[in-house]
Structures are given as structure tokens and as C-alpha cells.
Amino acid sequence: MSGFKSLRTVLEMIKFEHTLFALPFAFLGMMLAAQGWPEWHVVGWIVVAMVGARSAAMGFNRLVDRGIDAANPRTADRALPAGQVSPVFVGLFVLASCLLLVFAASRLNPLAFRLTPVALLVLLGYSYSKRFTPWSHLILGLALAGAPVGAWIAVRGDVTATPLVLAGAVLLWVAGFDVLYALQDREYDLGAGLHSVPVRFGEVAALWISGLLHLGMLLLLALLPRVFPPGLGVGYWVGFAGCLVLLIYQHGIVRPGDLSRLDAAFFRANGLLASWLFLSTALDFWLRG
């Protein structure tokens, strides 16, 4: 297999286009830090860092889980267990992605650069968490919560309550939808000795736990304007209302014993939620000049 074809296979394997999934929250953290839109070179390096971070995390996850994926009927046709790409190539891709993140951070500011080992520890460590804890969903949430904090640091070189509250909201949002996503693999995970909230607590309790996590997200989003000194206006609250509607929709279409529309809940509602909140808040900043 040519290097170009292998790279294309890896990008398809990690769903590279879903990098946009976390990018709106990174942009939201960046915009709050700058109280508007920062210089374009900062935006560019934040995007590069996000691409490196997510590519490293997803590539590493597929690499260390290739044996698990091969035994799970839902994931057996993924590129690594199917032999479409070699573990060595994926390992090199992960290494290159890690270096891309480190280089981008070095172009931003010293604090961003110094914190890259912590970021990589969380991003890569998540892949092992379901082997020993049912709360791996929170660790995945922590990995994505680094996006708004990292973007804030990229702009300002410090950390305040504002990015931490936003990061907490992202953590709970991701953990909540990951609990739902894990419902698909509950039976397999039980037999394989893997851990998750659905495995530990059952399907009905998992739906309640996911709902509580998303309620916590909404509470933190409601708190965000109070810890952001300039405050946030009507545009932000329009974004908040959209988040509420999308979360209600998401939980309405996933019911005990019926996971047939889980893909719709996971991809459409959550992808739209992140973009809607960012765009509404960006409009708020624009209207206020």
C-alpha cells in the first residue's frame, strides 16, 4: 500500500472531518479570551494544534484498541483489524500528530508549550481507561475540555475561572453523549470485561446518568456569563436555548430498548450544538461591536 493511500485510510479511520466536532468550543474559548476575534496567526496555530491533538488521540485509540475492535462485530471492519493499514504506519501517524501539536503550541506562547505533556497524557491515556473504570466517559470529556482551555491559554497565556467553567461544561457534555454511545456496545463490553456506565449500571440508569451530566452542562453554561467579566448578551442566551433544545431532542430519540436512532443523536445533535453555541456567541460579540 502506498504512503498516500495509507494516509487516506488513516484519515478515514479517525474520521478526520469530525475534527470540526470540538473546534467550535476551541473557538469559543479563544473568542472569550480575546473578547472578540484574535489575530489570524493565533487562530491558525490553534487550528493546527487542534488537528494534531485530535488526530493523535483518535489514531492512538484505534491503535491500542485494534484487538478489541477485531472481536467486536460493530467495529471489526475498521481499518486496523481489517488489515487495511499497518500498526506501524498508524504509530508513525500518531507520533507525527503529537509533534504537530507540540510545534503549534511552541508557536503560541510558553505556557501553551509547557502544558503539552499534560495534554498528551490525557489525550492518549483515555484509550486505556475503559479497561479499569466505568467512568472513562469523564476522561474522554476531560480530553475534549482541553480545547477551550488550550485556546484561552493560546490567546492570553494564563488561566482564569472563565475557561475552567466552559471546560467543565464541555466535559459534562462529552461524557453525557459518550454514555449514550456506549449503550451500543454494552453486551460486548460485558463479555469482554470492559467497563462503562451502561455496563456498570444498566441501560435505564445509564440514560438517567447521561441526562444528569447534560443537566450539569447546562448549569455551567448558565454560570459562564457570571464568571466572564464583560458578561454575555442575548446572542449567547439564544445559543444556550439551542443547546437546551438539542439536548432534549437527543434524549428524546434514545429510549430503553431502542437505540436505532443513536447515530442521529450522536452526530447531528451534538455536532450542531457546538457550532450553534459558538456562532450565537460570535454574533453576540459582533452586535456589541
How would you explain this protein's 3D organization?
This protein is mainly alpha-helical and 289 residues long. It has one domain (3-283): Orthogonal Bundle (Tetracycline Repressor, domain 2). The protein is built from 14 helices and no strands. The longest helix has 26 residues, at 262-287. The mean pLDDT is 91.
Number of domains: 1
Spatial shape: globular
What percent of residues adopt helix (DSSP H or I)? Answer: over 70%
Mean pLDDT: 91
Structural class: mainly alpha
List segments where confidence is low: pLDDT < 50 over at least 5 consecutive residues. none
Name of the CATH superfamily: UbiA prenyltransferase
How would a crystallographer describe the biggest sheet?
A: none
Q: Could you spell the SSE succession in H and E letters?
A: HHHHHHHHHHHHHH
Instruction: From the 3D structure, determine the CATH topology.
Output: Tetracycline Repressor, domain 2
Strand content: under 5%
How many separate helices? 14
N-to-C span: 53 Å
| Corresponding CATH architecture | Orthogonal Bundle
- Determine and state the CATH class: Mainly Alpha
Label this structure with key terms.
mainly alpha, 76% helix, globular
Could you give a quick summary of the protein structure above?
The protein is mainly α. The chain contains 14 helices and no strands. Helix content is 76%, strand content 0%.
Detail the topology: elements first, then pairings:
Blueprint: H1 3-13, H2 23-34, H3 40-64, H4 66-71, H5 87-106, H6 110-114, H7 116-129, H8 136-156, H9 161-182, H10 186-192, H11 197-201, H12 203-227, H13 234-253, H14 262-287
Helix pairs in contact: 2-3, 2-8, 2-9, 2-14, 3-5, 3-7, 7-8, 8-9, 9-12, 9-14, 12-13, 13-14
